[in-house]
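Researcher: Next entry: Thiamine-monophosphate kinase (Pseudomonas simiae).
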Amino acid sequence: MGEFELIRNYFAAAPCAQGGEGIALGIGDDCALLALPAGEQLAVSTDTLVAGVHFADPCDPFLLGQRSLAVAVSDLAAMGAHPLAFTLALTTPTVNADWLQRYAEGLNLMAQRCGVGLVGGDTTRGPLSLTLTVFGRVPAGQALTRSGARPGDLLCVGGELGNAAGALSLVLGQRNADAAVADPLLAHYWSPQPQLALGLALRGKATAAMDISDGLLADCGHIATASAVSLLIERQRLPLSQALLAFVGEDAARVAALSGGDDYVLVFTLPSDELASLLADGWPVHVIGRVEAGQGVTLLDGNGHDITPAIHGYQHFQQTP
Ligand code: ADP
Ligand code: MG
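Model: Predicted structure:
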């Protein structure tokens, strides 16, 4: 199978590559063409996943297809952007028809769930890696950036934390667990659900937002820096799932929630008078702390004592106001 047959069979023919909102021209020419409504800006983000670095190889190609797109689309959710389209740059050492078929199926399922169309890409031979670029639209000036947090805002997350990090020993085959515990954790790792609807609901309300990919502490550090504020996190407020608590216990669950990464849950700052209406509308908003004047990220125990971990790699999050 040659390069063009591969593209045609597995990607151009996929249901998610048959056009959609905002797609004036899809796969097949030198560029795709996207059409934006007047007054909207294009939101663009790229993510690369390298075999052996970002995912175990071999792994289930269907799950990899889902995950590779979900982590990219999560960046659109974090900006409050409405998803439109994506491209796929695939580098693979061999052409394995079964692998490509199942990868494309997983990709297609997540694309349809997120409402993005595949509009192009590149296909090359080399060590397995995937680069996905996502495109969304957002009314000019309304994107949720990292830089608007203000002292007095609440610090919130959009769901339970630490599940994907808790799943890692299952993913790597180092541990086993009953399905009731393992399945929800593995689902969170392999099939994260980008919080697109929440991102849209936060437009005009949240003052800053991002998606958690590197762990809550590290990612809050980015908001603190960009907004030039101090973020205080109250440890006992971290939302933890029953499955994670059952699998690793409370202490390890908190570590996973604070620095595990791969959550793809939104973290955002919110003026306190916006909270009630978001909760009334049923949005999953968990208040985990607050914004103060100063800089950096501080973790507090139930008595308000600073227990910011001195973990290597997180030193720069220990600055206190
Ligand atoms: P060019 O040489 O102009 O860069 P290619 O020959 O690489 O284009 O690709 C031909 C068409 O197929 C282009 O429209 C490109 O966007 C698309 N394409 C290539 N690889 C992929 C892929 N893995 N998934 C989706 N579309 C792809
Ligand atoms: Mg060309």
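Model: Note for the record: The first helix runs from residue 3 to 12.
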